[in-house]
């Protein structure tokens, strides 16, 4: 894990600058460990920065120094390859009638890298075996992904969940079940198959 | 587990009748335990009735007495709720333009029963954590499901896999991640959303 003694990496919009330097090189790791425990125990919604700071035995201001948001802390704690905070606005920014294609291509390209895929699959594995972790993941997905996309596109959340379920199922068929040929076709070919489905779910409600 | 001392339950078309009665009330259980080990070790394709009989220390004819096919033995060994042997022909039998609706409704209705859902989710969990088991499951799915549907509908296997991936993803979103509202809508409503997608993948190749 990278340590950031100075400069507050992981801090984006809204990150505060502190008057003093963080305590030790390990502070960030300490906060992340506390975050993991707290999220697993309380879920995403009920976890608070204050509670995580208390468990890490640091000042809440220090938590804010490292992480701009609870979401950012979750992303770092679970070692997720992307921060929806940053990625979703970019994906939604282009033409509405191509959003399905952008999403399908983005998800397939990202998961084609083992380094990005592994932590995501680890999270799914965890959700399958641990009720509490499933709650934590559901709350994060709802908060960071589903609600945000539904709101931005002005469609009911179930339509975003349907699009998610298609991409989710396809990634698992490709990388966990490794069905052939879905496991070995090029990203572009698979994206071409999935894009119309995703687009159909995300089209403006009629 | 139900024991069948006489009559050879699990034996369907092609099941042989034996000249003598099976050895003990436990023979079927013994065969299933041997089948589980063999499938996990060799995968579905390379496992043989002869090899399973050897491991169970019974005559191969006795295996045939209990199970009509390797597929039927897999279904019983994994305690799967359905036998694709029986279900798929029935699902494919109706009008082609409604096959998506029939499949979506069938999968959602079946998985709405915890007793049917649990062994299926157990299998997915296993596939996520164990490479060998993933191979076993992939081979079974390919042999028992994908190839058969692709052949019957005369479409490329990837289209069946895409349909499968949508239903698979939806079931996981509903029962593992429990995203709302996808987790709590009625089967009919969810089937209504998924049917056009599944139908689109399974329509005759243009």
Automatic annotation (TrEMBL), chains A, B:
Entries under Pfam families matching the protein: TetR_C_16, TetR_N
Domain HTH tetR-type stretches: 25-85
DNA-binding region residue numbers: 48-67
Entry GO MF terms: DNA-binding transcription factor activity; transcription cis-regulatory region binding
UniProt-listed InterPro entries: Homeodomain-like_sf, HTH-type_TetR-like_transc_reg, HTH_TetR, Tet_transcr_reg_TetR-rel_C_sf, TetR_C_16
Chain segments annotated as transmembrane: none
Keywords in alphabetical order: DNA-binding
PANTHER family membership: HTH-TYPE TRANSCRIPTIONAL REGULATOR RUTR, TRANSCRIPTIONAL REGULATORY PROTEIN
Protein name: AcrR family transcriptional regulator
Naturally occurring in which organism (per UniProt): Streptosporangium saharense
């Amino acid at each position: 894990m990278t340590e950031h003694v100075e400069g507050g990496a992981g801090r984006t919009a809204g990150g505060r600058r502190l008057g003093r330097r963080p305590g030790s090189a390990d502070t960030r790791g300490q906060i992340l460990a506390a975050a993991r425990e707290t999220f697993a125990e309380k879920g995403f919604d009920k976890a608070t920065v204050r509670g995580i700071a208390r468990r890490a035995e640091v000042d809440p201001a220090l938590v804010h120094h490292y992480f701009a948001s609870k979401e950012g802390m979750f992303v770092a704690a679970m070692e997720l390859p992307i921060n929806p905070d940053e990625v979703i606005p970019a994906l939604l920014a282009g033409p509405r009638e191509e959003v399905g294609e952008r999403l399908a291509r983005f998800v397939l390209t990202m998961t084609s890298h083992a380094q990005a895929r592994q932590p995501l699959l680890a999270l799914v594995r965890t959700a399958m075996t641990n009720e509490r972790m499933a709650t934590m993941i559901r709350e994060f997905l709802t908060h960071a992904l589903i609600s945000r996309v539904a709101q931005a596109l002005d469609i009911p959340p179930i339509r975003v969940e349907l699009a998610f379920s298609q991409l989710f199922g396809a990634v698992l068929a490709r990388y966990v079940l490794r069905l052939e040929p879905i496991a070995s076709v090029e990203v572009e070919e698979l994206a071409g198959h999935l894009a119309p489905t995703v687009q159909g779910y995300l089209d403006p409600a009629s």
